Amino acid sequence: MRKISLSLLALGTIILGSTSSIVNADTLNGESIASVNVKAGPLDLKSVDNISFGDVIINGKNQMINSIDNSTVSISDLRGSNDTGWALKVKKDNNKDGFKDKGLDLNFNPSTSASYVTLSGEMTINNEDQTVAKVSDINIKDTEFATNIDLNPKLNIAAKTFANAYSAKLVWNLAAGPDTDTN
Fold it and tell me: Where is the signal peptide (predicted)?
């Protein structure tokens, strides 16, 4: 009889134990929010190449000389802006203009493969800010993070230029929000 009681007790424990683990729960729905604050990075001139025309021999005629290397300006725009463009300007430094009144004219004819950039066209660099390239507020959303502008520099050397070593310091300015002038 003791064996039967223990067997019934064990069987009852198994049955009761198994029924107590069955739970009828309501299905629960929940919501959560994922958030992030993306902050603007910089608008930078990443690099501006020096321009070299090498050695030129006076020949008694006006000469137009191409630079030795293809000089490039590299711009990085990590602002994440979709409504504010930029403008790149250049001028010769008044205090370091070794070309002034020497019969030397530095010319740029900028080019780029970036369709969103508006280029100035051929220009002679002087002591006043001149727009080389710009991206309009409308086109800024089409830009890439990096933009390269080839300057395609040429130096016009007048026939009466004296033999000497000449140099000029160029001052570059990259600013958000392009100007509306045409140069």
Answer: 1-25
- Which residue type occupies 29? N
- CA 174, 94, 181, 52 torsion: positive or negative? negative
- The CATH code of the domain at 43-176 is 2.60.120
For CA atoms 177, 135, 38, 32, give the dihedral sign: positive
Residues 6+ apart with CB under 8 A from 164: 102
Structure tokens at 171: 């001052």
Domain boundaries, the chain: 43-176
Pairing mode of beta strands 154-157, 63-66: antiparallel
pLDDT in tens, 1-51: 555 554 544 545 555 555 455 656 677 889 999 999 999 999 999 999 999
Is the pTM value of this prediction over 0.85?
no
Nearest partner of 84 among 36, 119, 130, 134, judged by Cα = 134
Report the alpha-carbon distance of residue 84 to residue 138 in Å, rounded: 8
* Cβ within 8 Å of residue 47, ≥6 positions away: 72, 73, 74
Distance CA 117, CA 103 (A): 32
